[in-house]
Design a protein that fits this description.
Length: about 300
């Protein structure tokens, strides 16, 4: 007799983007991602220990460490080492990269569906304010910048790879990848590789950005920010997306530059404005996966016995 499950909605639920289902990852890594999303706060951060994650998921600590590395390689998770006052290492801080923007989008959708307030004859902006202490300057962040739409060719190639990998056991595909798709993917990746920004370009771009925002930054801080973006292999489009993310978030009265952790959070936010780079990174993973399959097939091919 079938068992009927009854779930209590008061205990909450985890709402994941449907695009996550198309990302190639192991079942254990997916379970860990769901659990981290369940634990994450509004900024996508949480601080569970390996023992807690092991107990929740039912996997060993070694397996959990492997899943963490897998999610990091997919740019779905960032980790930050923490130290106690006595210098000993403390548990890692986990940050689900897409969680903050995803929750904000869900909140915006809910607000847009809410019943609009009844209009009155005088709008709030038209009301006269006599208080001398009232700030007339609007400090709310700017509206979301326009997202750069990826090219039609990139979308077509990405969808073809997604269809081939959907439901397939890693590293296999549902069917062999044709040479045309592999060559088109290689061309896109080579084109992307030539667009990687140099350290000088990144430094000049960041210098102009902070100067426009009236932020005083030291040469050492600018060098550290440049190195962080260079290690992420940021492109020209990525720099533009990063600028949009900073301009959207930055407040007019902020005069100090962000620290390293805050700077990397801005970089993570900028990925929402640059879907093209994210798709190219996935294509790079798909191509590596197909090369793994081909090497495995070559090893399985029986060699000719010439000693007959």
């Amino acid at each position: 007799m079938a068992i009927s499950h009854e779930f209590d909605p008061a205990k909450g639920f985890v709402a994941l983007p449907s695009d996550v289902m198309d990302i190639d990852m192991t079942p254990g890594a997916f379970r860990l991602l769901v659990e981290l999303c369940r634990m994450a706060n509004t900024t996508g951060e949480c601080w569970p220990s390996l023992a807690q994650l092991s107990d929740r998921i039912g996997r060993s600590k070694a397996s959990i460490s492997g899943y963490i590395s897998e999610l990091r390689n997919l740019d779905l998770l960032n980790t930050t080492s923490q130290k106690m006052a006595n210098g000993y290492n403390y548990r890692l801080k986990y940050c689900v990269t897409f969680w903050q923007n995803w929750r904000a989008q869900l909140s915006n959708m809910r607000q847009s569906k809410a019943t609009p307030k009844s209009k009155c004859s005088v709008q709030p902006i038209e009301r006269r304010v006599n208080s001398k202490n009232h700030s007339h300057k609007n400090h709310t962040p700017a509206c979301n910048a326009e997202k750069k739409q990826p090219s039609a060719k990139l979308v077509s190639v990405f969808l073809n790879w997604s269809a081939l990998s959907k439901g397939a056991v890693f590293p296999n595909f549902n069917r062999p990848v044709n040479n045309t798709l592999a060559s088109e993917t290689q061309e896109l990746l080579e084109q992307y590789a030539t667009d990687i920004s140099t350290k000088r370009q990144i430094e000049n771009h960041l210098g102009k950005l902070w100067l426009a925002l009236n932020v005083a930054i030291t040469p050492n801080e600018l060098t550290l920010q440049t190195t962080n973006l260079f290690n992420k292999r940021i492109s020209t489009a990525g720099l533009i997306a990063f600028t949009k993310a900073v301009q959207t978030t930055w407040q007019n009265h902020w005069r100090k530059p962000p620290n390293e952790e805050q700077f990397m959070q801005l970089f993570v936010q900028s990925q929402a404005y640059n879907q093209e780079e994210g798709m190219l990174r996935m294509l790079e993973q798909f191509l590596k996966r197909w090369n793994m399959v081909q090497k495995k097939l070559q090893h399985r091919t029986p060699s000719l016995n010439l000693a007959a």
